[in-house]
Every structure is written in C-alpha cells, then in structure tokens.
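Q: For a teaching session next week I want to show students how multiple molecules come together into a single three-dimensional assembly. I've collected the sequence lines for a complex. Could you give me the predicted structure tokens for the whole thing so I can convert them for display?
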Amino acid sequence: MNQMNDDPRLDGIDLGRVWTGIASEVWRRHPGPVERLAIRLLRSPGLARALLNTPALLLPWLISTVVVLTVGGLMSLAGGEPLVWLIAPGIAAIGIAYAYGPGADPAWELAVSMPVSDRMVLLVRGVTVFAVNAAIGVAVSAVTYLATTHGLPGGGGHHTVAVSAAITFAWLIPMAAVCALTLAVAVLTRSASAGALAGVVAWGGTVLASRVSTGAFSAAVTDSRTYLPYLVVAACATALIGYTTRTQRRTQ
Amino acid sequence: MNIELTGVTRSFGSNKAVDGVSLEAGPGVLGLLGPNGAGKTSLLRMLATVLPPSSGQIRLLERDPGRTADRRDIRRRLGYLPQNLGYYPAFTVVEFIEYFALLKEVPSARVPRAVAAAVEGVDLGAKAKSRLRTLSGGMLRRVGIAQAIVNDPDLLLLDEPTAGLDPEQRVGFRALLRSLGETATVVVSTHLVEDVGAACSEVTLMDDGHIVFRGTPADLVTRGEGHAIGDAPLERGYSAVLQAARAAGQGAVAA
Amino acid sequence: MDDDELITRLAGGDDTALRELFTRHAPMLAARLRAVLPPSDVEDVLQETFLAAWRGAGSYRPEAKAGAWLWGIARRQAALVLRRRGPATAPLPDLLQAGAVALPGPGMHNDLAQSLATASQLASAVGTLSPADRQVWQLMYEEDRPIAEVAKLAGVPEGTVKSRAHRARRLLRAALGGGAG
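A: Of course. Below is the structure for the complete assembly, covering every listed component.
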C-alpha cells in the first residue's frame, strides 16, 4: 500500500492510512447479544470475549454435557441411584479444569502477560461453567423427577429419585449465593484469589455452622430456614457487583 | 529509561538461568544474542512480567512490576511474542489479533483500527479473514508479531520473531523494527546474527546467564577482527566474544 | 481479473477484492479529488467512497465502468463532506445529478470552485424561502434524505415534497442569477 503514495499529485494524502480506515470497518467484528450482555456485566470487553471462548461453554461441549447427563438421568430412572447428581459435578470439574491454564490454552504464555488477569478469567469461566452445568443437571433431574412421579417406566426408585430431586433443586440456592459472593468479592478487590477465598470460607463456614446447630452437614441444603438468608446474600452480592462495576473507572 | 534491571537473578532449582544481570535501555532496537541455554528466554520472560526474578530489581516503563496496579499498567503498554506461541486454529487472523487487543485493554473504540493497522503492518492484509489453521509457519509468526504490536507498545519483546520467515519477509520485518524502535524499546532475542546487524542499534550478548558484551553491532564486528571462526564479520565478533568470555571463566561486560 | 469480476466478488463479501479495487482505482480518484479538496478531506472521501462501494456493490451494473461508478460515488461523498461543513459550503444540488458534470477533471474543478463562491449567496437565498419550502430543502439537499423519509418527517404526501423541492430549486436559481439548469 505504501508504493501508491509516489504520485506527486497525491501530496499530503496517505493512501495506506485510507486503506487502514477502510479495512478497520470491513474487518470489524460486531459482538452478538450474548457477548454484549457479558461486556456490560463484566465491564471488560476482553474478559467477556475470554468467557465466550471457554472451551466448556462452546456449543459442542454443551451438547455433549446435555447428552451425558441425559444418559445419567435415564440410568437413574432404571436403577434408582441419583446418577445425575453424581455425574454433574464430575462434568463440571472437567469443564472447569479445561477452562484455562497451561494444559488447556495453547496461547497460555501470552495470556499470562495480559493486563486482564488470567486468574480473573479463570474465576469468571469457572463460575460460569459451574452454573451452566448445574443448570443442565437440574433440568435433567427435574425431567427425571417428573417422569417417575407421573408413573413412567422405571418407577422402582420413585422415592429415592424424589428425595434426590428435591436435594438437587435445593442445592441451587446456596450454590447461587456462593457464586454471587465470590464474584462480588473478586470484582470489588479486582483479585480472583480473594473472591475464591471468600466463597470457600463463606460456604465452609455455613456448612460447619449447620452441623453445629442441627447436627447434620446436609442441613445447609435441606433446612428451608436457610433459604431466605442465602437469597439475601445472593441479592446483596449482586447489588454490590452492580454498584462496584458502575463506579470502576478505566485507567486508560 | 524503559528497562532498568539491577543484579537480576533467576534460578530454577539449582540452575541459575539468569545470573546477576544489570541492564538499562531506552528507545531503540536492542538485539539479544546468545547460544541456547544462555538465559535469553528467561530474561525476556522477566521483562514480559510473566516470570518474577529470584532476586534483584526490575523497573519497566518507570514502574515496578512487583506491584499489581503497576503491573497492569506495564502490561497495557507491553507487546510480547513468546518463542513458542500457540494459536487457536479456528480463529481468523483478525479475530486472533482482536482477541489479544481486547485482553490488552485497548479501548474498544480504537480496536478495529488498531487491528487493521497491525495486520497491514505485517503484510497479512490479503489473509485477514483466513483461519489460522490454513496459514504457513511464517505467516503464523507474523500473526504473532501483529498481536504484539496491536496496542502500539512502548516496550516490545520478541523472542525469535523471524523463525520461519523467508528472506524477503525478514527484510520487511527489519524495516518494521526500525520504525518501531524510534519511539519504543524493542528487545529482539535471536540466534540469527544477521537479523541483529540490520535492525539493531545495540547488541547484548549473553552466555551462561551473564551479559558478556554490550555495544553497537560495529563494536561487535571490531571484536571479531582477526578471529578465525565465523563466515561474516558479526559472526566472527560473536564467537570471539564467547570464546573470550568462556576462557575468562566469568562473563565481563564489554563496552 | 477485470473490474467487473472484482465488483461481483465484492458483492459476495470478498474483502480481498475490495483491496484489489482500492489498489487499482484509489490513486486516480485521490488525484482528481485533490484538485478540489484539501488532503484530509480527500482521505475522508476516499474512505467513505470505498466503504459505500463495499456496501452497495450489489447495485453495480456491468454496463457502467468501474472507474466511472466509483467516481460517481466519490462525487456524492465529496458533496456530503462539503455539506457537513454547513450550508455555507453546500454545492448546488445540480452537481449531484449524474450527467450534470460530464467528465471529471478540470471541468469538475471549475464547477465546484464556482459553486463554493456562490455558496454564501446560496445560504442567504435559502433564508428567503417559505418555512415549508426551506424545510424540504434542508431535509432533501442538506441532509440528503430520500423523498419517502422527507414526506414522513414533514407529514405531507410525497407529491407535495416533490413540488416544494421543485419550487425551492426554481426560486434559488432565480435568486442566484440563473445558474445551470
């Protein structure tokens, strides 16, 4: 493009610059609605793009997850064991393990030199993968639960499935609280480790507290008196995230 | 001063990859030469804020990379091309460069133009929308260079950038380096001595974790006069300096 | 590959065809525009011209020549750039009609230069139009909106828009001492 500037009639005109302007419009990528939402929520276009490129959130992986969990759901229909809840965490763990890090990202060396912190990307991806897997797990459990209570084949494990389905639904609430709290602390401190630490400590403390007060660890999930506090925590944390990200100034 | 290193050491277990290196650099193109295992890559990784030093002081762009906020600032103004850069095969050239522009927190409004300028700067305009898996090794290297320059960095670190480039592309690349070196500090780590001669205003030679030579390419040529090993003046200077350094046992910085 | 084939590829979304078209035609266009516009405006117009070509490649008919087609787009873009400066520099709308300027080159230079000289007279003449006619003038010629949009904005039928535009042009020509037309 530089050779074109040799014509003396073109004094002062940089055709290379003109072409760059044209190319920037022609090659421009327009983010889709999901990405635009992610940019608004995360207040960082880089982080949003990193999230949407998470291997475990890409369509092929999501489809495989649904297939495997559905198989798990069908198996629990027949045998009565809550295989969905056994499998879902395993799949989520694999998804999170492949979300980021030297084993998963071919451009890892470069990613570690970026201002958008790699730990922040990991946290955001991890939380999203976890949430997505939980959603799929719950959906399959719900379908399984409805199928058995409506008397479809495999009603032998009816009671077990009903109990585990309730537990599966109930887990959603503390899970939401922990995720929201983790993200709130991470955004507030701009540190993924701080967020993770806060989430783990809060959840561990809650489980221990329910053991101390009721004698059972699982009371943290099954005791309906805990649901309102969880929801309050989730709501406050979400509000805090919104407030903090609104006042964060870009230091550009 | 964009780079200020004082007595920087980096060890991996008992192996000292970088041993007591002191270095200062302002704008210009600095060539980093040395045999394999000399510590060039570790030094570059420390400059890229990817690796912390085991001891010593580092200041980059007048900031302290040990502090989180400063490190973010440095990284926004940094361009880094690692020796082995992996790619996302399904991404197009433009998508890949844009992804890292976003991760480098280039303001969104400026991203399209920055990406277009970077693509044209490495002469990949005709392949802008091609998927990375369809590109040759030399083209992929140029994509790597493009992502390093997309944020118009004040500190540009290139580890073996000309690997896979044909001679004509190397000429174009050296011209790019010279123009970048007018305002930024460019550190080019390479084992290709002729790359250094053509593009660099200064050369640093490393051996066994130490800096054994610092000066202009002409100075290096002078050191090689009368030396037998080497097919070109710079190569002779290179092997003369290495031989002297190894004979002396310890490296000594020569002006 | 000839220009027609390039433009067909352009319509299909091939950005390398746009690149080739730019390499072939931008220098010529730039030189012609440079005769009437300062360098920064030439760059703006060139950029808008090729982006308009990119977007509108589907409407290119192979009987036209690529160079003439691009020049037509460039002329319109040049007029827009001048008009955006304000009514004082807006050229007479006749220049926008295809065929009003037969061949680009020195002739174009004189027409535009002349129109720039009369631009301040144009501005005061526009002020003498009735409010309804002035509104149509501004919407159609200063803001370059299509007739249908002007009709909607003004709240009148398209036929009314056309007759007001016609009257405005007639009055302005008379006020400017009978220009081309």
